[in-house]
Structures are given as structure tokens and as C-alpha cells.
Amino acid sequence: MSRPGKSPQLDAFDRKILALLQRDNNTPQRTIGDAVGLSAPAVQRRIKRMAEEGVIQANVAVLDPAALGQSITIFVEVEVISETAKQIEEAKSQFAAAPEIQQCYYVTGEADFVLVIVVPAMADYEALTRRLFFGNNNVKRFRTFVAMDRVKVGLSVPVER
């Protein structure tokens, strides 16, 4: 895991490796090595170091929500009443624990949080709102946006400077 206040030093080889891994994390290290001009063991050492430093946070499969019956994507702005550190941490914990919430951001502006939610049906979203928003005395209001189409979805980070 990366240390607070200290950014890992990434060279051009690291950035090229990361770009390839973001496209396909199953790319063999030999193939990555050939593409970036390093040996497979050198690539393996670099990947291990970047994972230990927290640059690489997870190795996951990206799933199609619709294929799993989670066909509705909803974005929600949540405004809280009180922003004490304790209450913000409680909200973060509650949102992080909800499996329907794919992403949660604590933001500036009128809203305090922006959530990305996937559910199979609007009835499931209604039940979630009762549990997370109406059942929470610190939620002042929330605003819902239902996605009509998934135009671009991903978590890729630009790696070239």
C-alpha cells in the first residue's frame, strides 16, 4: 500500500506496463516484456512492486451488469444535514457496505456524495432509498439520475505523461 504523502516513482517502463495491464490484466508477462523491452522476470518484479506500493490496487474481472440481471444504473447526489467528521465517516461506511453501490465519492459543491448504483429493477432502488436515505436522519435530500445508455464505462487511468 502506498504511504501517505509519498508518491511512488514510476518510470516509462512502469507506465507502459500499467497501460497494458489496464487493457487486459491476463496478458502474459513475457508478452508485456516483449512489448516494453524488458524480460518477463523484470516485468514480474515491477508489477509486484507496484502492487506493494498501492499503484495496482486490485486485479478484477469487469462484468456486464445486464448479463447478471442488474440492468439499471442510477447516479445519486446525496446532501447531508450535518458534516461533522463522525457523521461523514458513518455515511461513508454505510454507503461502502451497500453491495448495490458500485462507486461512492465524497464531493464538493451542493451535494456531499455522488453514488453510482446498479439494481435489477426500480423496486430494488426504492427499497435501497428507504434503507439508506429515508431511514437516515442525516440525509437532507437526494437526487436521482437514471442512466439511459452506457456510453463509456471504466476505471482506466491515463498513464502517459
TrEMBL record:
GO BP, sorted A to Z: response to amino acid
Domain of life of the organism encoding this protein: Bacteria
Domain (HTH asnC-type) ranges: 10-71
Keyword Lipid metabolism: no
This protein's UniProt keywords: DNA-binding, Transcription, Transcription regulation
Cellular component aspect of the GO annotation: cytosol
InterPro entries: AsnC-type_HTH_dom, Dimeric_a/b-barrel, Tscrpt_reg_AsnC-like, Tscrpt_reg_AsnC/Lrp_C, WH-like_DNA-bd_sf, WH_DNA-bd_sf
GO MF: sequence-specific DNA binding
Keyword Transcription recorded: yes
Stored SUPFAM superfamilies: Dimeric alpha+beta barrel, Winged helix' DNA-binding domain
Protein's recorded name: Lrp/AsnC family transcriptional regulator
